[in-house]
Amino acid sequence: GYPLWFPEPSIRLPPTYLHESIRIGDVGVVTPHGNFDILFNICLPEDHPLHLHYGVPEGFKQITLSEKDIEILKDPDYRGCIVTTQCSPKKNININVTGANPNVVAVKGRKSKVAAKAAFIALPSGADKYDLRDTSVFQMEAMRMGKTWYEFALKKAGRTTMSHDSLYLITGYHKASTW
Hints:
By secondary structure, the chain is α+β, with helices and mostly antiparallel strands. Helix content is 15%, strand content 25%. It has two helices and ten strands, in the order αββββββββαββ. The longest helix has 21 residues.
């Protein structure tokens, strides 16, 4: 995973998603603008309000999770941490938090041959972490339905500019109140 340029949820989502935004089981794409566009969620029933806009892919099968399936770490000492994309070697980035506002960050560095783009997010107030304990059920469903999900995104949801590797199934996330 990696930080989103714009982590705010889309205003077209149902009210419950506007408050919570991303969830484990969401299937979607990272848009060219840098936000996550949720198409459907494999953990929600077919008739859930999230699925009213596009529906669900043919062959959709809900995966039911219980509270014990998700590991939750409330603010595991992330205060002041910087989260970066994995493709950006740390040696090529200097990050200095300056000024009275801890949300103002100056970044200095040079281009890396590994990646021309990078993202980072500063977490001045920390973050909570949510992770699926066992991803094997999600992996099996993604292998079974991956092609169908991709065709759904292209044809039903109209994501015609996405590449073959840009569809994501969320298995964990960090939630921060400030960034």
